[in-house]
Design goal:
Blueprint: H1 2-9, H2 12-59, H3 62-76, H4 83-120, H5 126-150, H6 154-178, H7 183-204, H8 223-251, H9 254-286, H10 296-329, H11 337-362, H12 367-385, H13 390-415
Helix pairs in contact: 2-6, 2-7, 2-9, 3-4, 3-5, 3-8, 3-9, 4-5, 5-7, 6-7, 8-11, 8-12, 9-10, 9-11, 10-11, 11-12, 11-13, 12-13
Length: 426
């Protein structure tokens, strides 16, 4: 039995996923503490402004998420004995390409600053410009973290993220408590914590600085198709994650929007409980992109653990939704209780679809991104046509996400069948 447990633990997918999932629980707890404390220290008005800035940052992270996936995927495909030199070559290549684009984009962002300030009703334009500058810092950190992920150094990655959240929390609270209750201090804490993490990240991947640069032969890699696929995938699931609340806000009163927001929060528990799993396994799967059939066991593992986590949480919602709503959100939101489990089931479908789409893209199957984009259009169309009640909205989401998950699961098993042709475009 001891040897069996040891052999299971030596599986990089299981070990890395376990470390990453435990670490993400800690990171998520620190993130919740950050928002809870800042909300109490700043009050509704100042915290509302800070939340709007975070919302802006969330939407502009779509291309950064694409870079994260692309780097993780490519580095994971390098030969093990040459991975450090090839990684340095890839980073040098991307600096040349992304650096030029970034320089051209920044003036456009500056021109948009006043519009963004007016649209979000912000008192100052400075924080908007600070967000634009912070994006570049975040891009560099994302590249370095993607390297750690691709090298399967999940302990370093989790430590990196925990240090950032502790520094962010500590600096923001100190500034606000001892200086003034101004939303800008919350943003300053985030930026300073990220600067600290930048140096930590550089130290963690210092091997890159001590090896010769291997020229990255970009023509041998499907960078364009993977880049577009990653961008479409990130865009699709980011919008799927947020467009429903915007449409509900449009069609329903503030009261029912608040009830729906509680349902979404409950649904997020299902998603975030299993999302570290798919993130951790991508570099493992990417190493098998030339032989997709070898990733079939990873697919079973991925779906098995995701299914166990998802059904456990949804089952709890079916059994104790009223108790959970009252104890967590208060009796004011009791109207959400009858739909809580159904929303959990819908988000469970979303989570499985997202997991399979990432799995497929790691195997160079870019059609998964376009299938996901169709899911986004189906979601928006469903809510637009069926919004007589929140029940219709939730059931519409359940049907769309359920079908999307089923299609992507079937596609995943199809591409990992024995003797499959590993053509990147399939």
């Amino acid at each position: 039995m001891k040897e069996k447990i040891k052999s299971v633990w030596t599986n990089p997918a299981l070990r890395g996923t376990s470390i990453f999932m435990v670490g993400n629980v800690v990171v998520s707890g620190l993130a919740f503490t950050y928002h809870f404390l800042l909300a109490r220290l700043l009050g509704p008005h100042e915290y509302g402004i800070l939340a709007a800035l975070f919302g802006l940052l969330y939407f502009v992270q779509v291309p950064i998420n694409t870079v994260d996936f692309l780097i993780t995927k490519l580095i994971s495909s390098f030969e093990a004995e040459k991975i450090v030199g090839h990684t340095r070559g890839l980073i040098s290549y991307l600096i040349q390409k992304i650096g030029l684009i970034s320089l051209l984009v920044f003036p456009v962002l500056l021109l948009l600053s006043k519009f963004v300030q007016d649209f979000l009703k912000l008192p100052e334009i400075g924080p908007v410009i600070a967000i634009w500058l912070f994006i570049y810092l975040l891009l560099i950190i994302t590249v370095l973290r993607a390297v750690l992920k691709a090298w399967l150094r999940f302990t370093d990655l989790v430590l990196n993220q925990i240090i950032e959240m502790v520094a962010r929390l500590g600096l923001s609270v100190v500034f606000i408590y001892f200086v003034s209750a101004w939303y800008g201090w919350g943003l300053a804490g985030v930026i300073l914590a990220s600067l600290l993490v930048l140096f930590i990240s550089l130290f963690q991947v210092r091997e890159i600085l001590s090896v010769p640069t291997d020229k990255f032969e970009h023509h041998k890699w499907p960078i364009k198709s993977l880049g577009i696929g990653g961008l479409v995938l990130s865009l699709a699931y980011t919008l799927m994650y947020s467009i429903d609340i915007l449409l509900v806000k449009h069609f329903f009163s503030d009261y029912w929007t608040g009830i729906y927001a509680v349902l979404v929060t409950a649904g997020k528990v299902v998603y975030f409980a299993q999302s570290p799993l798919s993130t951790a396994i991508i570099p493992v799967v990417a190493r098998k992109s030339q032989h997709p059939a070898h990733a079939r066991n990873d697919l079973w593992f991925l779906l098995g653990i995701s299914g166990l986590i998802g059904t456990s949480i949804v089952g709890l919602y079916f059994v104790a939704s009223q108790v959970l709503v009252i104890s967590v959100f208060s009796s004011k939101f009791i109207a959400a209780a009858p739909l809580m489990a159904w929303m959990g089931l819908a988000i469970f479908g979303y989570a499985l679809a997202n997991t399979c789409a990432g799995f497929l893209l790691a195997l160079n199957k870019t059609k998964a991104a376009w299938i996901s984009l169709l899911g986004l259009f189906a979601e928006a169309t469903g809510i637009y046509l069926f919004h007589a009640s929140l029940t219709q909205v939730v059931l519409s989401l359940g049907i769309v996400f359920g079908i999307l998950a089923l299609v992507l699961i079937i596609y995943s098993f199809y591409v990992t069948r024995p003797a499959i042709n590993s053509s990147p475009g399939l």
